[in-house]
Amino acid sequence: MIGLSSIPSFDLKRNYQRVKWEVLRALEGVLEGQHFILGPEVKAFEGEFASYLGVDHAIGCASGSDALLLALMAIGVGPGDEVITTPFTFFASTSCISRLGARAVYVDVEPDTYNMRMDMVMDAVTDKTKAVLPVHIFGQMCPLEQIRGPLKERGISLIEDCAQSFGAVRRVDGELLRGGAVGDISCFSFFPTKNLGCYGDGGLVATGDEGLAGRLRSLRVHGSTSTYFHDEVGLNSRLDEIQAAILRVRLRHAEEWNEERRAIAERYRMLFAAKDLLEWVTPPVEAEGNRHVFHQYVVRAKDRDALQSFLAERGITTRVYYPLSLHLQPCFRYLGYKEGDFPVSEMLTREVLALPMFPELTPEEQEAVVAAMADFYRR
Ligand SMILES: *Cc1c(COP(=O)(O)O)cnc(C)c1O
């Protein structure tokens, strides 16, 4: 390494410095109030989040994984049911299905957006299909307008996994909608590195349906609508009051941070072209009608593993999301899928590489990343 300091894949410390005093003031408010479970900060945050999203009801919970579990519980997914989803995503998008004794049915993904193929969803529907669970992967929305109508006709729920897409927007049937405002229920994660993250675990479920909202509020407190009386067995899964206070601060800045991510993505694209790297590196595609918020900046790269090691030697941290398609995970072997069943997802696991991406990444750091990539391919 020659005088280059290291470049992380993300850096939460830089972001904290931008909001430190606002966060400390918010924390002090919670500590003075001593109301820690489902207090005024959670209530206020849920209201602010719902109006940001343009959806009537927002229900905070303990994590994005719990948000998915609660959503499926609210629509009554159980043994014998099928849920259609993508094999190219984080584990939690499928574990919630198996956790409830239902079966994950996979549909392959697009090679350019990495999102689930909408044109194959209806072919995967059977009379056991209870829900479709698309993931807006890496920060851009699936074209849900292609399946929303047909699913409604068949009485199948559409549940959006928005863990990576906070702030994403899409023109849906002529209307600009946020990710999470298209389906019947949407699930968010506030894991610290997400586009809207807190300082621990946190999640949220949103819905426009009053009945489902009531069910979700009950399910997050042990299936109880009145203390110590239980209609069903739920979870203990609340959004923490301290995290809600932090999220209220960070929500006020999230749009600005997403714009910064978009500018970074644009600069990467220009640098690849300027360095003539497009023969080896395929940048992510923003589909027509989408506002991509680049939770991750994921390229497809020739000779990916060697490139990743080369960059690591130069102090540049990159990540592979995801190294193994979910249909090939040992714990989902019982589903009966095999290698070759989802060729695009499997190809991506060999080619994708997430470059450093966070709002505070500097142009100089980006130039160093792309220069190192150019050195690798021209070595
Ligand atoms: C992060 C993530 C989750 C889970 O969120 P947690 O808050 O970590 O439980 C679910 N789905 C996807 C696609 C994610 O990226």
Automatic annotation (TrEMBL):
<comment type="similarity">
    <text>Belongs to the DegT/DnrJ/EryC1 family.</text>
</comment>
<protein>
    <submittedName>
        <fullName>DegT/DnrJ/EryC1/StrS aminotransferase</fullName>
    </submittedName>
</protein>
<dbReference type="GO" id="GO:0000271">
    <property type="term" value="P:polysaccharide biosynthetic process"/>
</dbReference>
<dbReference type="GO" id="GO:0008483">
    <property type="term" value="F:transaminase activity"/>
</dbReference>
<feature type="modified residue" description="N6-(pyridoxal phosphate)lysine">
    <location>
        <position position="194"/>
    </location>
</feature>
<dbReference type="InterPro" id="IPR015422">
    <property type="entry name" value="PyrdxlP-dep_Trfase_small"/>
</dbReference>
<keyword id="KW-0663">Pyridoxal phosphate</keyword>
<dbReference type="InterPro" id="IPR015424">
    <property type="entry name" value="PyrdxlP-dep_Trfase"/>
</dbReference>
<keyword id="KW-0032">Aminotransferase</keyword>
<dbReference type="GO" id="GO:0030170">
    <property type="term" value="F:pyridoxal phosphate binding"/>
</dbReference>
<keyword id="KW-0808">Transferase</keyword>
<dbReference type="InterPro" id="IPR015421">
    <property type="entry name" value="PyrdxlP-dep_Trfase_major"/>
</dbReference>
<dbReference type="InterPro" id="IPR000653">
    <property type="entry name" value="DegT/StrS_aminotransferase"/>
</dbReference>
<dbReference type="Pfam" id="PF01041">
    <property type="entry name" value="DegT_DnrJ_EryC1"/>
</dbReference>
<feature type="active site" description="Proton acceptor">
    <location>
        <position position="194"/>
    </location>
</feature>
